[in-house]
DNA sequence: TTTTCATATCATGATATTGTGATATGTTAT
DNA sequence: ATAACATATCACAATATCATGATATGAAAA
């Protein structure tokens, strides 16, 4: 990307003044920015994916709906850990569940979730 | 406490036994799982996106290449904060930079980055 | 009812992350 | 050389997150 601004003489392209940084470029970039709250929401959303245990659960549920003890077994993790992460995933609308007797069958809420997981996986595998 | 092996009749689908959870389903889901290291890498990758300041920087750089003080100005953040986050972004190959005199011009390394950012944004905006 | 099992919640110590002041490095101008 | 400036690194307190033991809830079996 080329740097273009009002400095028609081109002499100041590489200067960076505190009170007047590359004004146009900064202004243009700034105008397209989401709001503070949207950045917060977005960071919270990605935070879900930033823990290996949660990723593993998402990964499992992208293949099949499972109950808590299935997940414990598949991941060789204790029940508290899995339940805790499921609570976080639930609170963020990443997974949903139905009660079936004393069991809870979990599944992903949204295809977006699977998509982001897979794009990320593709990225790190390349 | 009885143990069921070989549920060939498939009648026990909704039962959950500690020593033999829904065996087939668990096995199938497990087989498709990436390795432990891949989950770690993936979680590290998503962790980059889990901080509002880093997201803002990524957002700005998806519009234009910018130097550090441009970013400080656009985001109204002090220079140490921006530099620190740029270090993290650099270390994770999210951004690259060229030195131009005493300035450093930063840009995104990879279209994957912009894509993940945008899919996430789309998700939280819907 | 009592027991057993599946799951959820609470409390906590260990660990990681964040933003920032202080300071260092390196470049350009004078 | 000295000053001014852009950026990087270090150190650290405040905060957040993690896995897990202890415990609670609630449903089915005995």
Description:
The structure is a homodimer of 126-residue chains. With 126 residues, chain A is mainly α. Chain A has helices at residues 23-31, 36-48, 52-61, 68-75, 79-91, 111-125, and strands spanning 66-67, 95-100, 103-108. Helix content of chain A is 54%, strand content 11%. In chain A, a hairpin with a 2-residue loop joins strand 2 and strand 3. The longest helix of chain A is centred in the C-terminal third of the chain and has 15 residues, at 111-125. Chain A is elongated. The two termini of chain A are 25 Å apart. Mean pLDDT of chain A is 83; it is low at 1-15. Chains A and B meet through helix 1, helix 2, helix 3, strand 1 and helix 4 of A and helix 1, helix 2, helix 3, strand 1 and helix 4 of B. The structure holds a DNA duplex (30 and 30 nucleotides).
Keywords:
homodimer; 126 residues; three-stranded antiparallel β-sheet; 6 helices
Proportion of beta-strand residues of chain A? 5-15%
The pair of chains with the biggest contact is: A-B, 55 and 55 residues
The Cα radius of gyration of chain A reads 23 Å
| Total E-strand runs of chain A | 3
How would you classify the quaternary structure?
A: homodimer
What would the principal axes of the Cα set say about the shape of chain A?
Answer: elongated
H/E element sequence of chain A = HHHEHHEEH
Number of helices of chain A: 6
């Amino acid at each position: 990307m080329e740097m273009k601004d009002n400095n028609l003489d081109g002499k100041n392209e590489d200067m960076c003044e505190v009170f007047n940084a590359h004004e146009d470029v900064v202004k243009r970039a700034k105008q397209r920015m989401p709001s503070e709250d949207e950045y917060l929401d977005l960071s919270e959303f990605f935070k879900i994916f930033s823990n290996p245990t949660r990723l593993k659960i998402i990964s499992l549920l992208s293949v099949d709906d499972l109950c808590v003890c299935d997940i414990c077994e598949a991941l060789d993790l204790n029940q508290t850990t899995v339940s805790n992460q499921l609570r976080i995933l639930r609170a963020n609308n990443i997974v949903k569940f139905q009660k079936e007797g004393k069991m809870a069958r979990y599944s992903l809420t949204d295809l977006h979730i699977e998509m982001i997981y897979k794009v990320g996986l593709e990225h790190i595998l390349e």
